Amino acid sequence: MPVKIGYHASHEQFAPSRLLALARRAAGAGFQAVQSSDHIEPWGAEQGESGFALAWLGAAMHATDLPFTLVNAPGDRYHPAIIAQAIATLEEMFPGRFSVALGSGEAMNEHITGRPWPPKAVRNDRLAECVSVIRRLLAGERVTHDGLVTVHEAKIWSLPAKPPPLYCAALSVETARWAGTWADGLITVNQPEPQLRAIAEAFADQGGDKPLLLQVHVCWAEDTESAEKMALESWRGNMLPGPLAQDIRLAEHFDMAAKFIRAEDVVKTVDISSDAAWHADNLERYAELGFSTINVHQVAGNQEEFIDFFGDKVLPRIGGAR
Q: Nearest-CA neighbor of 248 among 82, 104, 108?
């Protein structure tokens, strides 16, 4: 199956105006999709950004003709009716080019409302309610719902001709298996191959043959030693174990915890090399696991150079890309 190689727009690291220029540059370089994060808090104070993704998406989708995927957590910071309205508006303006990967959220973004941060099982239950509400609203229903989220007589008036797919953002086998019961596809991040294979199989066991998307953290520089140093400096806050990262609330606290992250820890999560053939082979290896769209996240600040290098040296080497 042909694979699409996309570009990940990291709002936590770069100002929205720069990300808009980077999305245009990525489209011109041959990237075939864009994935957008959606945070209010960065992974560390030194990153220093977090633009409003829903405002940015309108501009970025107008500026390019690529498909976009938003990773979003409804239920606390975002009421599901508001997310449904945003989804409907973007899909109505840009038919067939928008999808959403819905997840249970992280405390760093959701704590701002002041409500208690629930355990993972409760967050999943809340997400399931939100998905049901969003689907009903996108179908044109007037929705009232009382549960872990409350909706009172909501209706979306500006609807697209066809609702876009609602994927699930999952990091574990357990969440992937559950997602297979309701999601139109799955998105996850790069992990050791046995874990990725288990996640894909668990989702397929419940969901059948549906799209699999992958976000791959990479770091490229002109030499590998520089790339390793840049990865540690730029992305160490995201090296913390999943459950811990989901519960920390403030960027400054990520900085404190990340002081204990070593260079050898970074290479377990970030695919690092200066070599074009290595990166191409690495992405093809992920494609062989069944991922149809692979969104590449260059974790360091040299975004323009990375986009040009991948467009010129890496993307042409990927035989299945289209």
A: 108
